[in-house]
Design brief:
Blueprint lengths: L7 E9 L4 E6 L12 E4 L2 E9 L2 E6 L1 H6 L10 E6 L18 E11 L2 E7 L2 H5 L6 E4 L2 E9 L2 E6 L1 H6 L10 E6 L1 H21 L1
Antiparallel strand pairs: 1-2, 1-6, 2-5, 3-4, 3-6, 4-5, 7-8, 7-12, 8-11, 9-10, 9-12, 10-11
Length: 204
């Protein structure tokens, strides 16, 4: 489980193989505290550390992850957003993020207003359905507040700190982005769907 508060950026120093694809990520964030088996979010995708060499950690991504996320597009030299998994007692500063990417969206628009940036992201329909103004969405591992939703386009505002601390500053129109819908909205939809089925059965 994560919060969507990016701790640091990392750099891909190696990307090898097809499935599983092995990614070696280097970052000042990594220290002696990390261990093989730890869960770390790369651009919002929860992956397991399979090897560690100082400040470089190796992750493996299998077919499902490669098909549903942007992880398979990463190459040496690319930057990724990093967040280590929550521990009991940690502050929940963003919102609950599972690290299970729901789909890939694309940056449709970007506008700078004074020191802030406003982005429009085209997301898959099932993510748009679960997204509401002033609700939460996770984009490339970043917990963001939704300012507006227009059909399948989700709008968010980016403050200078987030712009500087994450990979957003490198995005351009068309950039693919890992998207995770709000976890609570997803479970609420499932619960309500179950009640509708029970009500239908009761009327038969």
């Amino acid at each position: 489980m994560f919060t969507g508060l990016v701790e640091a950026k990392g750099q891909v120093i190696a990307a090898e193989g097809d499935s599983p694809r092995r990614l070696t990520i280097q970052s000042d964030l990594f220290s002696a505290a990390e261990a093989i088996g730890d869960s770390i979010a790369l651009d919002g995708c929860c992956l397991t550390a399979v090897d560690i060499n100082g400040q470089a950690i190796v992750f493996e991504a299998a077919t499902e992850t490669l098909e549903r996320t942007t992880i398979g597009r990463l190459e040496a030299g690319d930057s990724v957003n990093l967040e280590r998994s929550l521990r009991f007692g940690d502050r929940l500063g963003g919102h609950l993020v599972s690290g299970h990417v729901d789909g890939v969206g694309r940056l449709a628009s970007i506008e700078k207003r004074e020191s802030a940036y406003f982005l429009g992201i085209d997301v898959p329909e099932d993510i748009a359905r679960l997204t509401a103004p002033r609700g939460s969405i996770t984009l490339a591992g970043i917990s963001l507040t939704v300012t507006d939703v227009q059909e399948q386009r989700v709008f968010v505002g980016i403050i200078p700190h987030t712009w500087d601390m994450t990979t957003i500053s490198s995005w351009e129109e068309g950039t693919p982005i890992n998207c995770e819908a709000d976890l609570l909205a997803r479970y609420l939809e499932k619960l309500l769907a179950g009640r509708e089925v029970d009500a239908l059965r009761g009327s038969l």
